[in-house]
Specification:
Blueprint (H helix, E strand, L loop, with lengths): L1 H15 L4 E9 L6 E9 L2 E4 L16 E6 L3
Antiparallel strand pairs: 1-2, 1-4, 2-3
The structure holds zinc ion (ZN).
The site of zinc ion has 8 residues, from loops.
C-alpha cells in the first residue's frame, strides 16, 4: 500500500510540473521602433519569450519578433 501511494505521488509531480513555466511582466526590445516596452513574457525553463499576439504600445506592430531584455518579478 505504501509503495502505491509513493508511485502516485511521483506521477502527480511529473504531470503537474513538466517544466518550470510561468508568465511574467517584462521589458522587451521592439525591433520596429527600437524602443524598450513592457510586455507579457512567457518563461519556459531558461528561455524567456514574448507572449505571442501582443502589440507594441508605441508603434502598434507585433511584438512576436521582439526580444526579452529583462523580467520584472519578485525575487
Ligand atoms: Zn515598437
Amino acid at each position: 500500500m505504501r509503495l502505491n501511494e509513493y508511485k502516485e505521488g511521483m506521477t502527480m509531480a511529473i504531470v503537474t510540473k513538466p517544466q518550470n513555466k510561468f508568465e511574467s511582466k517584462g521589458y522587451v526590445h521592439c525591433p520596429i521602433c527600437t524602443h524598450t516596452v513592457e510586455a507579457q513574457v512567457v518563461v519556459a525553463g531558461r528561455t524567456a519569450r514574448v507572449k505571442p499576439g501582443q502589440k507594441c504600445p508605441r508603434c502598434s506592430s507585433t511584438l512576436d519578433a521582439a526580444y526579452v531584455l529583462r523580467l520584472e518579478r519578485a525575487a
